[in-house]
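Worked example (supplementary).
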Amino acid sequence: MAFRPVSISTKPGISAAVTVAALILTALLAVLGRAEFTSGLGPADWSAIRFTILQAVISAVVSTLLAVPVARALARRRFRGRGLLVTLLGAPFILPVIVAVLGLLAVFGRAGWLNAGLAQVGLEPVSIYGLHGVVLAHVFFNLPLATRLLLQAWQTVPAERFRLAAQMSLTPYAVFRSIEVPLLRQILPGTAALVFVICLTSFAVALTLGGGPRATTVELAIYQAFRFDFDLSRAALLSLVQLGIAGGTAAAALWIIPTISIGGGFDRSLHRWDGQVGVQQVLDVLFIGLTTAFLLLPLVAVVTRGVAGFAKTPLAVWHAAGVSIIVALFSIAVLLAIALPMAGWIATRPRGGSEAVGLLGLAASPLTIGTGWFILINPVVDPFALALPVTALVNAFMALPFVLRIIVPPMRDTVQVYGRLTQTLGMGGWSLWRWVILPRLRPQIGFAAGLTGALSMGDLGVIALFASPDTATLPLQMYRLMGAYRMDAAAGAALILLALSLGIFWVFDKGGRWHAQA
Amino acid sequence: MKYLTLAAATLLATSASAEPPQLVVYTYDSFVADWGPGPVIEAAFEAECDCDLKFVGMGDGAALLARLKLEGARSDADVVLGLDTSLVAAAKDTGLFAPAKVTADYDLPVTWADDTFVPYDWGYFAFVHDKKLTAPKNFRELADSDLKIVIQDPRSSTPGLGLLMWVKDAYGDEAPAIWEGLADNIVTVTKGWSEAYGLFLEGEADMVLSYTTSPAYHLIAEKDETKAAAIFDEGHYMQIEVAGKLAATDQPELADKFMQFMVSDAAQSVLPTTNWMYPAVAPAAGLPEGFDQLVEPEKALLVPNDAVPALRDEALAEWLSALSQ
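After joint prediction of all chains, the assembly is encoded as:
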């Protein structure tokens, strides 16, 4: 056995990772098993693959790079409403796709506020439809996530570092070079890889804002193979391609992350002396202001419409909301049971490539996982009976890569900084988790649990294959309302969904930061 | 513990045998919603059948068929409700369906000759717009205009596929030219009907692909008279929604009874204002108020069921190449 800096038992982590990989790969194999091999990939599939990678790369690069100044500004400013803003940053990410798209269009669409404003001053309208529209929407979804991940990293920097920098009167550039660049090297590749994989599986957003079949993604081709052609071999093949691209990118990105430690501190309360005046302050205010406007205006549109339609929301929506909350809580429990041991295992490995296992759940098309599991489960048990556990498991899988990205870096730090001490003390097993890891990672675990709960609330995913009429979730009811012309009532349901998702997110996130200055 | 389980199982089995027979009907999602036709029809049928009618909703028509193919003969379903004319040939090919024993005096613009599937409602595809707009008279006029439209992707949506067949049926070999002409009118293509209709109501486009019956919803449910459907002189493509009995059903008689019920007055009078489609059999009391204000196309278009699959693939290839440039 190679040197292990801390005595975290790796067995539970490895078993969790193997279980995740096995459950996803068996789903793929089940689909392949039912397929008759009729067709390979055609030219249309290849152009879908090209477009998918192109939009995902641009979206990932733009989202991650923009997140750097925003997170930096948020990390060194304290202002009224900052906590609320940080919570609201989670909102775009957890909105059901169609709600977010309608919100974006209210601002940037042909009849949106932006074009209304341009017309006022006599300028030509701009069109959101095209590759730039796809990227805009993906940045809307992912910039907040990337910002939160970076902000989280910034907050792991010991207060002593900034105190020392202030005592030495380092210029903002010097602070950036000496403290922030090493931090970014550790956090940016993983964040970019995560955003890339999210955008890789985009379908409705890419199609709607891409303006037509030019914007066909692999996920749409998978959907078509399942639904339009019922060509399981093509569906499985395309899923494999998607998995390959995601897995390769993720493994590469995670592998290049250097295993440097930011270093430990005395957990003093964080105070920043640098960049509080002058150009830096103006820049920070600008970045925070612009991001807030970009992210919140579409949300304002969603809320305004929701308030107007709230009275028309039928009772069934509240029942569905109850179901969704239960599913979300289940998902959080399942997720923590998988993610914590996995993070413990990954953190003790010299390189982070194994974290790519966590991305499988996000990269494999939910339709493929759902169909695969359905093929396996259907002969044995009534799929409806398993609707709740299956949904919770899939939601947990979808959230797993985010959660690992949130938990692994601080876990790695904890392991490196406290490794020797805990080994000297002979600490291991439960007492190590109880006294060292869990208390130090509490904010991250809270954030991760909140994100999982919120994601799970807004997800439609595989529920469609397993849901019986009584287990309809809130997003499903919202789609049903839209499908029955009741756009107002659907907007009301979307508002409830937004409020509940943010509520769950806030409760857990806040719980994690209770009595902590983060 | 073992005995307890056994006892419980026995108890359950006894109570199950005393219960009325269960009929499982797979249908699309919007049918089973609280505000859809499902709950009303369930109550009305259960009142006369001495059975338990269980609707199971999933996605749309295409999702239903995919689900049946996955389940094969093992399916719990006795009846499938909600396939449409573009899926009938593919559904028959599965060999999973049995001929229905249903008689009805259909009120359809075309003659229905299929013995397996029972039509229960239907509609014409059409572009819906605000009444203030002077609508084009056909696809060529639309292509020449500056009007903006939102349509659905035929690969993921039933109306999208309907539009594809509409243009192909009306124009044949000229269809690619029509699509090329329409390319600059199409704001965007959406995954499903809801997205497209939502975009239209948001003001993103002048017209949206929907049904001639869509204005009836706004008129009856919202007292909103501002929406209209544009009538095209090429004729309008039809969508007929059908029900079919699974060959492997364990309740064949009950299944026939249910399908007969679906074309009876009790069900047909409910459909117009819950499913927002025309009933397949004229209700005794006539159509609900508001439906009389709808415009009626002069010509109905429908590709024969058997010809759909081949034509569909050809038309899709043309559509993709015309709009991908």
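Two points are worth noting when inspecting this output. Chain A has 21 helices and no strands. Chain A has a mean pLDDT of 83.
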